[in-house]
Amino acid sequence: MARIKHTKNELKAQRDALKRYERYLPTLQLKKQQLQVEVRAVEAKIEAHDREAAAERAAIEPWIRLFSEPADPAAHLRLARVRTSTGNIAGVTIPLLEGVEFERTIPDLFATPPWLDDAIAALERMIRRRIERAILEEQRRALREELRTTTQRVNLFEKVKIPEARENIRVIRIFLGDQMTAEVSRSKIAKGKSAEKTRAAG
User: Fold this and answer.
1) How far apart are CA 146 and CA 152, in angstroms?
2) Would you place residue 102 in the very low, low, confident or very high pLDDT band (cuts 50, 70, 90)?
């Protein structure tokens, strides 16, 4: 704990600091609660996304071995652009996925197997899913980082700053009280001595 001056000015400074901490703390606690809710919401989205992606993989599993045939779906599909923007959740800037654009080349219907169109569509969905997952992960990372920082601030106020200011106020008040008592005692002694001198002179 830093050394403090045992003065009235320091007492006022400590009281002002305590008021400030007690005013900010509820705001920080509210932000922490909001962030916890948002982190859980993003985690629920990630879980739902993973379930849907697993269901899609299971649906194409029976014919996935066809991808090894000469007709390669990836040769007809190219990721052209990922459009993102930013949003704000509980004061945290997070990425938002606006859209995923692909360039497709139409396969020769006579030179390629009939399942190729479905395979290209499935590949497009898989790529889109991976991008969506990456954006959700980035949202979670940003929210968790802010939650960690906010939790540290809440703990600092609750466990350090507020108790420290209260203790400083208590110590200064005791010191000033003792000083006042000592001054009163000195004053009484001085008056007593003065009265004795007056009596002795008389």
Assistant:
1) 10
2) very high
